[in-house]
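A reminder from the course coordinator: this example appears on the midterm review sheet, so study it carefully.

Given structure:
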């Protein structure tokens, strides 16, 4: 089996024109295969991602931008990379939003003679209710349905956005994107019609009582009304009760508020390239998280995998030919200011980014990588590396989305790359109180770091 794989890989590399003589191609294929095996051996036998994640989650916890925990995470990231002996470790200053949730939110609806409490949480960036806010509820399944309603049907009420995930879609990320406008824009669209608040069904197909937070936005000139997420079970209960009692009232209490911006940092660790130090490969995840849990899959896993990718190269004796940076971005969740600042500084310094890789889809079993570029030749070249990654189930290299943090680098890097893993369970815990360390599987996590290190090895050796 190994012989057949090496033969196939050699043919692929020959087709890519990475070296001229056939004998040299075979040697390159054998060398690459052996080096990638070294990376995986190191990851699976001596990997450090899992223990690094344990510390980040259990000793620091949720890391919302502007919080003391976010500052602790910055110092943890810097110290962790310094201890690993990277060539350079430094901070990039960035001003970030400072939204605070306040006391635990309360929600209930009155139907008949009693009140029924429901699981609810504020959406990130929402204003508070200034005490208890009571109003009738109007249920809609789409923005268009809201726009089509007469004003008198909406004014003075809560708009209840109850569009569920489309479970026909194979990739839950597609369902998340399709349902996301009600979370992001629901409060604005409701306020435009005179509503007093927005209640949003959590963005998940899981049926449980974990409400999902996430960022929302306001518009200048539009009244800022409170926006809260209901758990899927709470949304179902409210919907059923509305059928029986159309005029029922909902009571919401939230103490959240937005404070002045706070100074924070991206954390950057760098290994200087041995042959082409001016060509840069960035790999990263976002250090901030929401505040309901420990921020394990979103995105502690991406941070520790990015650090680990550099460590694996050094520990395997594979010093990269291009410069490689691990970046722990700050403020992806509610502003992306860390990603924007990183790209601004790179452009101002005249840096040449070969590629940027992001892990922000959880620490689950690897599948491959999504390639975001307008250059079809780049995709074709990278796909010729698939046989080297296929034995580790990481060889699916297809056009796709790079990531939010690296998005601002789109005009500077030849390709943006999103680490792709099995996402079927991701949105069960995404942005909830369940996103904790105990949900992460050690082997899945370490395999992901090895996949990222292997792709970096190939990018560093062959360029684009």
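Designed residues:
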């Amino acid at each position: 089996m190994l012989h057949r794989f090496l033969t196939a890989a050699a043919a692929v590399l020959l087709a890519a024109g990475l070296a001229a003589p056939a004998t040299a191609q075979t040697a390159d294929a054998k060398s690459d295969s052996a080096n990638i095996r070294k990376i995986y051996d190191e990851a699976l036998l001596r990997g450090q991602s899992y223990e690094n994640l344990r510390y980040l989650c259990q000793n620091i916890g949720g890391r919302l931008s502007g919080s003391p925990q976010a500052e602790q995470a910055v110092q943890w990231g810097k110290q962790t990379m310094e201890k690993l002996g990277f060539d350079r470790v430094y901070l990039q200053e960035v001003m970030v939003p400072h939204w605070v949730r306040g006391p635990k939110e309360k929600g209930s609806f009155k139907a008949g003679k009693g009140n029924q409490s429901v699981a609810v949480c504020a959406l990130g960036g929402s204003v508070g209710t200034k005490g208890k806010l009571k109003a009738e509820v109007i249920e809609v399944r789409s923005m268009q349905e809201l726009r089509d309603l007469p004003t008198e049907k909406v004014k003075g009420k809560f708009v209840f956005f109850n569009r569920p995930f489309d479970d026909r879609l194979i990739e839950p990320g597609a369902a998340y994107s399709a349902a996301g406008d009600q979370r992001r824009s629901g409060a604005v669209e409701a306020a435009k019609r005179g509503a007093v608040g927005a209640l949003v069904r959590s963005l998940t197909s899981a049926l449980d009582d974990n409400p999902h937070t996430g960022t929302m936005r306001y518009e200048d000139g539009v009244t800022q009304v409170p926006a809260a997420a209901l758990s899927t079970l709470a949304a179902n209960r409210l919907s059923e009760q509305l059928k029986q009692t159309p005029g029922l009232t909902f009571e919401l209490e939230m103490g959240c508020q937005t404070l002045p911006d706070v100074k924070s940092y991206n954390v950057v660790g760098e290994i200087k390239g041995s042959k082409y130090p001016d060509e840069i490969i960035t790999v990263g995840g976002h250090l901030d998280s929401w505040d309901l849990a420990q921020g394990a899959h979103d995105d502690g896993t991406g941070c520790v995998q990015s650090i680990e990718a550099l460590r694996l190269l050094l520990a395997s004796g594979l010093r990269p030919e291009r410069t490689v940076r691990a970046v722990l971005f700050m403020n992806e969740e509610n502003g992306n200011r860390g990603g924007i600042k990183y790209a601004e500084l790179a452009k101002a310094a005249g840096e040449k980014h070969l590629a940027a890789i992001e892990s922000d889809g959880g620490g689950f079993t690897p599948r491959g990588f999504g390639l975001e570029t307008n250059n079809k030749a780049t995709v074709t070249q990278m796909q010729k590396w698939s046989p080297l990654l296929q034995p580790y189930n990481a060889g699916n290299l297809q056009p796709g989305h790079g990531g939010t943090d690296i998005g601002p680098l789109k005009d500077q890097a030849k390709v943006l790359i999103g680490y792709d893993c099995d996402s079927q369970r991701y949105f069960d815990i995404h942005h909830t109180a369940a996103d904790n360390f105990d949900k992460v599987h050690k082997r899945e996590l370490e395999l992901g770091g090895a996949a990222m290190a292997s792709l970096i090895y190939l990018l560093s050796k062959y360029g684009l």
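DSSP finds 15 helices and 16 strands in the chain. The radius of gyration is 24 Å.
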